[in-house]
Amino acid sequence: MRVLMIGDVVGKGGRRAVSSLLTDLKSEFSVDFVTLQGENLAAGIGLTVDTVVEMVEAGANVITTGNHVWDKREFIDHLDDPYLPVLRPLNYPPNTPGRGAADDTGPVAVINLIGRVWVGEFDSPFAVVDDLLAGGFGQGKPIVVDFHAEATSEKAALAWHLDGRVAALVGTHTHVPTADSKILPEGTAFVSDLGMVGAVDSILGVNVEGSLNRFLTGYRQRMEPVRSGTMNFNSVLIDIDVSSGLANSIERVDRQIEI
Ligand SMILES: [Fe+2]
Ligand SMILES: [Fe+2]
Hints:
The protein is 22% helix and 26% strand. By secondary structure, it is an alpha/beta fold. Strands 1, 2, 3, 4, 11, 12 and 13 form a 7-stranded mixed β-sheet that branches. A 6-stranded mixed β-sheet has the order 5-6-7-8-10-9, covered by helices on one side.
């Protein structure tokens, strides 16, 4: 079984790049299941129903999120909509809307977690995922994890903690793809960060002026996703042995497209 996991999709330019590329990539690599990091889908911050539907129609099976999932307040109620395959990180407090893991959305079970180093105060992703797996999560399906975190050390540590228990753990959030994809000794595929689907001429997908001026002046200025030009499409392809639920291989699938 082959799973394609796509990094943070930033705004309209990112969505258009996904819509332009994903159908062909799915057939080129015989992809069975697609996850997509969607916390930046709507104008770079948060999600809306329309942008989620657009990505599902483009071929995404499950949309994971991160710290920006709350930014479009009208979407919070939709986190419990059974027709929208959207997860929010599992290790928020128990009464938070939405769910952080799903094993009923296709042949692959998906877990979404968020890091604590330089991101925020959340429950321990290590303890929370241990509890979930101890409860029989997955229905025997291969499990993939999107760990939305800043620190490469925290991402690697959680991957080693889960080695042999999930098919893959991939990092998201930095919007910068890393070149460390590998299979850990017990069969879990790992990469520190998927990267993003967003503009090459940008700072993490948003306009250079807005992001740069924030550093030059010390106050927050208007930042908008770059909507056109050359877009990076960053993802990884994971080949999974369904009988063991572990990974045979992981490889980067990175493309560029003019939008
Ligand atoms: Fe992001
Ligand atoms: Fe993030």
